[in-house]
TrEMBL record:
CDD domains named among the record's database cross-references: GSH_Peroxidase (cd00340)
Residue ranges of the TM segments: none
Protein's name in the database: Glutathione peroxidase
Top-rank taxon, per record: Bacteria
PROSITE patterns: GLUTATHIONE_PEROXID_1 (PS00460), GLUTATHIONE_PEROXID_2 (PS00763), GLUTATHIONE_PEROXID_3 (PS51355)
Pfam families: GSHPx
Protein family according to the UniProt entry: Belongs to the glutathione peroxidase family.
Keyword Cell inner membrane on entry: no
Gene Ontology molecular function: peroxidase activity
């Protein structure tokens, strides 16, 4: 099984096979409109515009599980992304990334790359330690803007915790793209 085996909900309620991204490097991110990390949309869009021609696809998955920071409808989320950050990469339908209702894609991503979330995540580690202590030391997504790098074959290469910025990921993307 690989990421390409999953079908996800599009923002318009339809479905989309991730198999259509075979051969491309993916950066899969759970996103939110009202988070302190929301400005990362700008960096994600910059990566997408700079590296799309070399085979990068950024895929955004809105999630409202962290502090209620993505309360809007799919239509409102699409509007926010385009008007606030001029996002042109695909942003899919809102999903859960943790718990019994988590999207199968995210169950798979978490199992493939459980993450390394600790004090090096600074303010966010302290926040999660206080607000969601049960998540520390698990494969759960800790907060919005967790990123997964997936190679052209659909294999999960690496997980980046939310405080790792798109700009910091650039060197890994440059190394994995043609």
């Amino acid at each position: 099984m690989t990421v390409h085996d999953f079908t996800v909900e599009a923002a318009d309620g339809g479905s989309r096979s991730l198999g259509e991204f075979a051969g491309q490097t993916l950066l899969i991110v759970n996103v939110a409109s009202k988070c302190g990390l929301t400005p990362q949309y700008e960096g994600l869009e910059a990566l997408y515009r700079d590296l799309h021609g070399r085979g990068l696809e950024v895929l955004g998955f809105p999630c409202n599980q962290f502090g209620g920071q993505e309360p809007g409808t799919n239509e409102e989320i699409q509007s926010f992304c385009s008007t606030t950050f001029d996002v042109t990469f695909p942003v899919f339908g809102k999903i859960d990334v943790n718990g019994p209702e988590s999207a199968p894609l995210y169950q798979y991503l978490r199992a493939q790359a459980p993450g390394e979330f600790g004090p090096e995540s600074g303010f966010l580690y302290e926040h999660v330690k206080k607000s969601r202590p049960e998540a520390i030391g698990t494969d759960e997504i800790k907060w919005n803007f967790t990123k997964f790098l997936v190679d052209g074959e659909g294999n999960v290469v690496r997980r980046y915790e939310p405080t790792v910025t798109p700009e910091e990921i650039r060197k890994d993307l440059d190394a994995s793209l043609v």
